């Protein structure tokens, strides 16, 4: 089996494992899994309870080694550990924290170029791993104190190396879905309060369902994203951007611009802007909005479990390792109306990371001064180099909240 086929198959099995776990334990976690030629990447978000769950597991393992806990059930040890962990995490921020994993498969002692560029500190650990094993690199944003900002830890090689794909899937699944926290004991009076709230909620729900005026006001029509429409828009956008870039490359090479080429470029700009506008109008799943640590600078409209942020820019990770930025009219106009002054309003293409960050840093600094962040649409073309792809993606995420349609 080639490496590319191996990682494609591993992605399919991981997707199924996440779906099975979600349906069995009723915990939804947004997991992004991508298979590349030489490796597989996955990332997910964990809230403060996620980190508390892992801390409880660690405390149970510590208590299990004590002589006085011999024969004590794991459930009781988890209950005994819970108060200590809750106290230890009481000052931590309630927010979404990102976790990332990269999976390699070692077939020789040659170190993959991607690993050398992305995580050079992990090269010795990779060399020490036995052949024909899956090797997992890990990094994460750990829970931070209130008022602090989370930072990614350094990449590290996990100590366990797995021969079988099923072992890798189980290990990663256990990391994504830790055991839930034991139920916290509540005083009896809380049950009476809960019962009163339940009765009130049932009464309100009955009124909303039976009174036409209330039903129209409080039960908006659901919006769903048509997957076929989304894929069609992505394909159209990729094709138009490729043609646009080819024409601009010809102009940059010194070719004289005739009237037909100039007209075609103008038409392409209008068509690309129209497709971006249609993508910006698509509803964002509620789980995507959980990424917000600070408030969104521009209004976010909610309808049921869907959210509609106002996007400031459309940003493309180009195949030539550069970035392109296109302002979106609604977002720019709304930002101006709200008093934002550091908003570049002209499209920019073929930007390196340094040039991109120089361009958008005043925008993100102005947003940070207001304790908010802007949303942008991000289109990721097929990465030719994983290290450069990750660097460009992280450059965008340092300044904006990202939605990938």
UniProtKB/TrEMBL annotation:
Keywords: Membrane, Transmembrane, Transmembrane helix
Keyword Membrane among UniProt keywords: yes
Residue spans crossing the bilayer: 189-211
The protein, known as: Uncharacterized protein
The species this protein was found in: Maricaulis salignorans
């Amino acid at each position: 089996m080639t490496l590319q086929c191996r990682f494609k198959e591993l992605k399919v099995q991981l997707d199924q494992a996440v779906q099975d776990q979600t349906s069995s334990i009723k915990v939804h976690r947004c997991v992004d899994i991508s298979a590349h030629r030489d490796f597989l990447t996955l990332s997910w978000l964990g809230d403060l309870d996620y980190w508390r769950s892992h801390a409880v597991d660690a405390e149970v393992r510590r208590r299990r080694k004590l002589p006085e806990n011999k024969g004590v059930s794991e459930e009781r040890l988890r209950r005994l550990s819970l108060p200590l962990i809750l106290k230890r995490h009481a000052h931590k921020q309630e927010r979404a924290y990102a976790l990332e994993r990269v999976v390699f498969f070692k077939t020789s002692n040659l170190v993959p170029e991607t690993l050398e560029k992305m995580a050079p500190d992990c090269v010795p650990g990779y060399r020490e791993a036995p052949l024909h094993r899956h090797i997992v690199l890990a990094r994460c944003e750990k829970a931070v104190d209130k008022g602090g900002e989370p930072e990614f830890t350094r990449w590290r090689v996990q100590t366990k190396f797995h021969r079988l794909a099923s072992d890798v899937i189980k290990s990663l699944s256990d990391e994504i879905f830790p055991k839930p926290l034991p139920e916290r004991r509540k005083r009896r009076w809380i049950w009476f309060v809960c019962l009163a709230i339940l009765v009130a909620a049932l009464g309100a729900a009955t009124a909303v369902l039976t009174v036409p005026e209330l039903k129209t006001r409080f039960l908006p029509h659901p919006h769903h994203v048509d997957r076929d429409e989304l894929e069609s828009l992505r394909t159209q956008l990729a094709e138009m951007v490729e043609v646009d870039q080819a024409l601009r490359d010809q102009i940059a090479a010194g070719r004289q611009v005739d009237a037909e080429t100039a007209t075609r470029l103008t038409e392409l700009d209008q068509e690309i802007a129209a497709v971006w506008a249609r993508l910006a109008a698509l509803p964002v799943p509620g789980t995507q909005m959980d990424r917000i640590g600070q408030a969104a600078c521009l209004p976010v409209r909610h309808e049921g479990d869907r959210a509609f942020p106002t996007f400031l820019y459309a940003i493309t990770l180009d195949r030539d390792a550069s970035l392109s930025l296109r302002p979106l009219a609604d977002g720019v106009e709304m930002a101006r109306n709200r008093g934002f002054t550091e908003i570049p309003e002209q499209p920019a293409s073929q930007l390196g990371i340094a040039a991109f960050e120089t361009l958008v840093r005043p925008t993100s600094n102005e947003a940070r001064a207001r304790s908010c962040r802007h949303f942008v649409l991000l289109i990721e073309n097929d990465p030719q180099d994983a290290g450069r792809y990750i660097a460009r993606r992280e450059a965008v995420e340092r300044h904006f909240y990202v939605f990938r349609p």
